[in-house]
Each structure stands twice: as C-alpha cells, then as structure tokens.
Amino acid sequence: MNSTTPCVSFIGIVDFSQDARWLFLSESVSDLLGFEPRDLVGRPSLELVHPDEFRRIRKMHYDTIRQDKAAVLAYLRLKHKDPYKGYILCAVSRTVVHNVLVGSVSFAAPGAKAMHNASTAQEVEVVTPSAKDFELRRWGDPSPMPPSPVPEITLPAIITGAPPPKAGGPAKEKEASNKKDPELEVITFSPLPTQSVRTALILDRFTVNCTVIYCSNDQLLSTTHAMGRPFFDFVVQRDEEIVRSWIDVIKAWGVNERGQPSDGGFGFGKFKLFAQGRDSSSRQSEPTPSRHRRGSHARSSSKNRPSRSHASHSGPASSSSRPKPSRSSPTSPTDDERPVDAIFSAHSDGILVILRTTS
Length: 359
Prior knowledge:
2 domains, 20% helix, globular, PAS domain-containing protein
C-alpha cells in the first residue's frame, strides 16, 4: 500500500464463532478498508483475510479464545473494498472479553509507532512475511537463533559411501512423520473454556469527561446505567486524578505522524471502580501545580487532546441530557467499590478500556 493510506485505526468486536463474525465496527473502518460498518456487521471477519494466511489466522482466532488472551497484537493482511487497492498490511489487536473478542485494526507502517505498539503488547505474532521488521525482541524472549544440532555421522557410513543417518536417528524420523501439521488440524469451538470476567468500554476521546459510548456486558457495570455518562462517574473520587492522567497519556500516544487521532499501544493500570456511579462533575478545585509541572509545553503536544487545565475547570458537556447520577457519598468505602485491572488503548474513534476484577 502506498503512503496515501490513512494512518488510522478502528475498533472492532467479533464473536466466538469459527468465522469470527463482526458485531461492531467504529466509523474509521471506512477510512482504512473502504467498507462502511453496516457493510460488515454480521459477516465473517475472516472473509477479509488474505487466502495465504487464512488457515493460520483461523487457528490464531481459536487459540486467542482458548488461552483467554488479552492485549495481544498480530500483523496480517486484510482486503480493501476497492479491488485495485488489494490487501492492506494491518496491526490487529485483540482481547477476550467474556463472550466476544474486542480489539482494533490499524494501518501498519515501520517507525516509532510500530515499535511502541509492539513493545506495549503482551504478545506479538507476525503472520505476513513482509512484516518481519515489526517483530521486536523484548526482555525474556527466547533467542531467535537457537544453536544448530550437531549431526550424528558415524565413521563406517563415510568409509562405505552409504548416506549418513539423519540427525536424531530412526526414532526422530518416526516422530517427525507422526507429527501433524497444526494448520491442517480440525478446529472445534465447543466446548469453550471458562473465560475471565472482563468488560469492554468505548469512550469518546473528544470529550473532557470521556463519555461512555459502548459497554460490552453487565459483568462489572450496568450497560443501561453507564451509557451516555462520563467514565469518571465510575471511578472512585480518590483515584480520579491518576486515572485522568493515564487517559491524557493514552490520548498523547494515540496520534499519528500527521497529528491525527490514531492508535498508540497499550497502557495498564489499577484503580477502584465505583459501580453505582457518582457525579464526577462536582470536582474539588485542583491543588496548586508543583514547580515540576509549571509551563504548558507538555500539554500542547496534540491539537486533538484536551488539556489537563480544561479537565480541571470545565463541567461535563450536556450534563442535563444524561441520566441523573446517584448521590451516594463517593468518599466512604462501599460494597460498590471494586478494585479492577485496566487496559487502556487509544484509537481514531475512541478510547478502548478493558476492565477485569483484580484477582
């Protein structure tokens, strides 16, 4: 694909079926692959996979579910709607969230962003051979060049002119012949293993209070209770500032080379979720900034990212239109406070947050 390909990302959700059917796609899919969300919802996502990579991607889909993976990344080719544009090399992230796979698809190009995405993912798998440049080694990864085995060559075989036995002898040959090609194995999806209890939220990245625009299930939050409300209504008050700072960082990461909203790797954190909800618009005034944070150069790195000063003094947009929050005191611990692990990632259309109860 040429340099005119938009460096954007879209959020996608697929089901556990063998075809991995699309359940949700954000609007930026049209910029990257040419399809409108309505063109793909209900259709198999594997239809877009390059034929040479189909078997491996299908098995990867199954392994992701079976192993209950989270924040993993793969580089593969997906078909563009315009046949003249062929297949686009994409970075595809995925996380198992209860009974669906939630993730994103972005245009893959070499550079600092690709390094950042790969270094923050829990696992990276390169499917398309030309994407080997994106395969980065990290601490603890096994060596890509294991030592070569020494062939077992006996002196009599060389003297008599007979062909030397293969390394490992007859036992190894028999073992190799019995070994099945993993790509040819029959893949079954029933019964599925028990998955971790996770909930996925999509937040509006263009609002100060990050309005919840999608909630995948009712495992940790009530979907009807959360939709349309600021995400921070569900963060305990004492953790709000640190969670806001994390999201500010995620927004700064999620900007492409042209300064446009895009993907930016994964961020991980832990905070207390307030499931009942509160009114986060009635925030206390900010303490005086320390001398280490004086100045505005760190807050103006992106035109698309709201500054911390706006977050400190602005009320929520259209507060009268959202459901009236509970007036329970957020400062005293209640049964609704639940420690959660969170995975944050920014994309062109929003911020994806995956929540899981802390074990």
